[in-house]
Amino acid sequence: MSDIVIVGGGTGGHLFPAMSLAQELRDQGINVSLITDRRCEKYLPQDLKIPVKIFHIGSLRSGLWSKFCVAFRVLVATLQSLKLVYKAKCVVGFGGYTSLPPLIAAKILRVPLVLHEQNSVPGKVTKLFAGSAKIIAVNFEDTQIDKKHLDKVFVVGNPIRKTIATTTATASDHLRILVIAGSQGAQKFDELLPEAIKLLVPTQKIKITQQVIDYNKVSEQYAALQQAYPNFEFQISTFFQNMEELYANCDLVIARSGASTIAELVAAAKPAILIPLPTAAQNHQFFNAVSMQNKGACICFEQTNNADQLSDQILRLDKNKLEEMSNNLKKMQKNSRKIFVDLLIKDFYVR
């Protein structure tokens, strides 16, 4: 049995902070386990050294049969979770449908619930269990939690990998742009970025590192640009493992505005143009980006804008503006892993 059970899945945005917190708890000598789902299994490192349970919940699609299947899997997973959370000091939920079974089981067994809300607009899991939770940990100070639950709210930030903020950078005379497409809506970046970069390379020394969906198509476009403009450099991949190094060696990030990406930008103090995913639940990515823009830490750039507008926006971000945004990001930095762990230890271990 684990003292603390942590659960999150569906997307990397739910799993990565859950995994980061689990690692910090383990480092503190606390018996911890992690629950996620098959969709996130690919993100689990081989050297995790934390017990992991994989559920198959699936995503909720339209149609009666799909809803029945998800409901049945939630029921089965809830029965399995009763054993997993039995006698735990608390269950920490990071969102996604995978969180439902362990949180339901914890509620049945009267095991204390802790919720972590990564976005400015709370997700369905947070709304559903806010009344039952003992603690609601949030990423943003302006997270829209119902007023009747504010006495449970603690601003802890979003736990991320320790190494994001500690990797040493190398010098370059290029404007180094890192493009992080994320797991959803990346096709738009494949279309938008090559067109925008094409407008910049005649007058700017650009190096772009981009996560792509269609490797062959984007590679051909950038190779043609490089042939015409030898000072242009590019590196593309469908998935990057060395994110710490990439953050350290860039001047500007272009990314979606998921909570985990924003937390990493803050830790690395990297200025960004954030392009919210329009189909994100409750438009939470837009509100995340606006929250950051209001702090002078990023530019919110809507997906309906075109390549001309994106290239113009990049040109407006001169060295002084990038430095100003970086300094504003540094003001937001906090050790979220430690803050969250200290909160859990205080509430569930110190009496």
UniProtKB/TrEMBL annotation:
<feature type="binding site">
    <location>
        <position position="161"/>
    </location>
    <ligand>
        <name>UDP-N-acetyl-alpha-D-glucosamine</name>
    </ligand>
</feature>
<dbReference type="InterPro" id="IPR007235">
    <property type="entry name" value="Glyco_trans_28_C"/>
</dbReference>
<dbReference type="Pfam" id="PF04101">
    <property type="entry name" value="Glyco_tran_28_C"/>
</dbReference>
<dbReference type="GO" id="GO:0005975">
    <property type="term" value="P:carbohydrate metabolic process"/>
</dbReference>
<keyword id="KW-0573">Peptidoglycan synthesis</keyword>
<keyword id="KW-0132">Cell division</keyword>
<comment type="function">
    <text>Cell wall formation. Catalyzes the transfer of a GlcNAc subunit on undecaprenyl-pyrophosphoryl-MurNAc-pentapeptide (lipid intermediate I) to form undecaprenyl-pyrophosphoryl-MurNAc-(pentapeptide)GlcNAc (lipid intermediate II).</text>
</comment>
<keyword id="KW-0808">Transferase</keyword>
<feature type="domain" description="Glycosyltransferase family 28 N-terminal">
    <location>
        <begin position="4"/>
        <end position="136"/>
    </location>
</feature>
<keyword id="KW-0328">Glycosyltransferase</keyword>
<keyword id="KW-0961">Cell wall biogenesis/degradation</keyword>
<dbReference type="InterPro" id="IPR006009">
    <property type="entry name" value="GlcNAc_MurG"/>
</dbReference>
<dbReference type="GO" id="GO:0071555">
    <property type="term" value="P:cell wall organization"/>
</dbReference>
<feature type="domain" description="Glycosyl transferase family 28 C-terminal">
    <location>
        <begin position="177"/>
        <end position="333"/>
    </location>
</feature>
<protein>
    <recommendedName>
        <fullName>UDP-N-acetylglucosamine--N-acetylmuramyl-(pentapeptide) pyrophosphoryl-undecaprenol N-acetylglucosamine transferase</fullName>
        <ecNumber>2.4.1.227</ecNumber>
    </recommendedName>
</protein>
<keyword id="KW-0131">Cell cycle</keyword>
<keyword id="KW-0472">Membrane</keyword>
<dbReference type="InterPro" id="IPR004276">
    <property type="entry name" value="GlycoTrans_28_N"/>
</dbReference>
<dbReference type="GO" id="GO:0051991">
    <property type="term" value="F:UDP-N-acetyl-D-glucosamine:N-acetylmuramoyl-L-alanyl-D-glutamyl-meso-2,6-diaminopimelyl-D-alanyl-D-alanine-diphosphoundecaprenol 4-beta-N-acetylglucosaminlytransferase activity"/>
</dbReference>
<dbReference type="Pfam" id="PF03033">
    <property type="entry name" value="Glyco_transf_28"/>
</dbReference>
<keyword id="KW-0133">Cell shape</keyword>
<dbReference type="GO" id="GO:0050511">
    <property type="term" value="F:undecaprenyldiphospho-muramoylpentapeptide beta-N-acetylglucosaminyltransferase activity"/>
</dbReference>
<feature type="binding site">
    <location>
        <position position="285"/>
    </location>
    <ligand>
        <name>UDP-N-acetyl-alpha-D-glucosamine</name>
    </ligand>
</feature>
<dbReference type="GO" id="GO:0051301">
    <property type="term" value="P:cell division"/>
</dbReference>
<dbReference type="GO" id="GO:0009252">
    <property type="term" value="P:peptidoglycan biosynthetic process"/>
</dbReference>
<dbReference type="GO" id="GO:0005886">
    <property type="term" value="C:plasma membrane"/>
</dbReference>
<comment type="pathway">
    <text>Cell wall biogenesis; peptidoglycan biosynthesis.</text>
</comment>
<keyword id="KW-1003">Cell membrane</keyword>
<feature type="binding site">
    <location>
        <position position="119"/>
    </location>
    <ligand>
        <name>UDP-N-acetyl-alpha-D-glucosamine</name>
    </ligand>
</feature>
<feature type="binding site">
    <location>
        <begin position="11"/>
        <end position="13"/>
    </location>
    <ligand>
        <name>UDP-N-acetyl-alpha-D-glucosamine</name>
    </ligand>
</feature>
<feature type="binding site">
    <location>
        <position position="183"/>
    </location>
    <ligand>
        <name>UDP-N-acetyl-alpha-D-glucosamine</name>
    </ligand>
</feature>
<comment type="similarity">
    <text>Belongs to the glycosyltransferase 28 family. MurG subfamily.</text>
</comment>
<dbReference type="GO" id="GO:0008360">
    <property type="term" value="P:regulation of cell shape"/>
</dbReference>
